[in-house]
From TrEMBL:
Belongs to the NAD(P)-dependent epimerase/dehydratase family. SDR39U1 subfamily. InterPro entries: DUF1731, Epimerase_deHydtase, NAD(P)-bd_dom_sf, SDR39U1. The lineage of its organism: Bacteria, Bacillati, Actinomycetota, Actinomycetes, Kitasatosporales. PANTHER family: EPIMERASE FAMILY PROTEIN SDR39U1, SUGAR NUCLEOTIDE EPIMERASE RELATED. It holds the Pfam family DUF1731. Residues 3-212 form the NAD-dependent epimerase/dehydratase domain. This is Epimerase. Residues 248-293 form the DUF1731 domain.
């Protein structure tokens, strides 16, 4: 199968491309410069330009590109970059897909469980409405930007991804060294739920979305049993055999991270109902196994 991927050099995109190529699929990587080989397709999300000819013959497009939510302090300009990188990029991909003589059979768009906002102790699935605040509003606009593809009859799936557990990057890429040094601890009260997913399961789930014709619309990519930050902290201590005595109080987080601290302290108890009902099987459904898999 020929599959186009945006965000192919990011944490998830790199793992997905490696997995697809290992199984003999042809991958077309979208790059923000002049293409230098048949495996590359030029695009400019800011200008909403895609070399649509490069997508010809693709049976699937996986769109993962977007500015990192936790990469910088949330200034007004960076919040604008977070939103525009997702909305403009998704609109460009969706319009390019829609204009093809033979569109791909599926467009898998990255999204996030940030859509739900703070759910507290309440478990939510794909039927829940959007929450309130910056990230939920970004997710709503992000998903709505894919309308041209849906209107063209392309099966469109939104991969609402949780916290991906990986040693190479993302939140856990920063946490593992701290905990290994014995400096790890809970954040705030530790009672907030954090919906995570192992990198192995994240890649497998994305491929499941490509292959499963019955899946359309939002699909939560999270492990089936969300846990609290306190439980994650205890599991990190057991796996790494390190003390977890430190606590970062909520006021200190707000001082250090600014508005982004709200995303760190929010409670999100998100369940993968659509994945499970479609027959997906998690290799690492529990937090401790997930952590050990990331460290292998």
């Amino acid at each position: 199968m020929r599959i186009a991927v945006t965000g192919s050099t990011g944490l998830i995109g790199t793992a997905l491309v490696r997995s697809l190529r290992a199984d003999g699929h042809e991958v077309r990587r979208l790059v923000r410069r002049a293409a230098t080989s048949r495996e590359e397709v030029t695009w400019d999300p800011q200008r909403q330009y895609v070399d649509a000819d490069g997508l010809a013959g693709c049976e699937a497009v996986v769109h993962l590109a977007g500015a990192g939510v936790g990469d910088h302090r949330w200034t007004a300009s960076y919040k604008r970059e977070i939103r525009e990188s997702r909305v403009l990029g998704t609109a460009a991909i969706a319009e390019a897909v829609a204009c093809l003589d033979t569109p791909p059979r599926v467009l898998v768009c990255g999204s996030a469980i940030g859509f739900y906002g703070d759910t507290g102790d309440r478990a939510v699935d794909e039927g829940a409405p959007p929450g309130e605040g910056f990230l939920p509003s970004v997710c709503v606009d992000w998903e709505e930007a894919a309308a041209p593809a849906r209107e063209a009859g392309v099966r469109t799936v939104f991969a609402r991804t949780g916290l991906v557990v990986a040693r190479e990057g993302g939140a856990w890429g920063r946490l593992f060294p701290l905990f290994k040094a014995g400096l790890g601890g809970r954040l705030g009260s530790g009672r907030q739920y954090q919906s995570y997913i192992a990198m192995h399961d994240q890649v497998a789930a994305l491929r499941h979305l490509i292959d499963t014709e019955s899946l359309e619309g939002p699909v939560n990519l999270t492990a089936p049993r969300p846990v609290t930050n306190r439980e994650i902290t205890e599991a990190m201590g057991r796996v790494l055999k390190r003390p977890t005595l430190f606590t970062v109080p909520a006021p200190a987080l707000r001082l250090a991270l600014g508005e982004f601290s709200s995303d760190v302290l929010v409670s999100q108890r998100v369940l993968p109902r659509q994945l499970e009902e479609s027959g997906f099987s998690f290799a690492f459904p529990e937090i401790e196994d997930t952590l050990r898999a990331a460290l292998r």
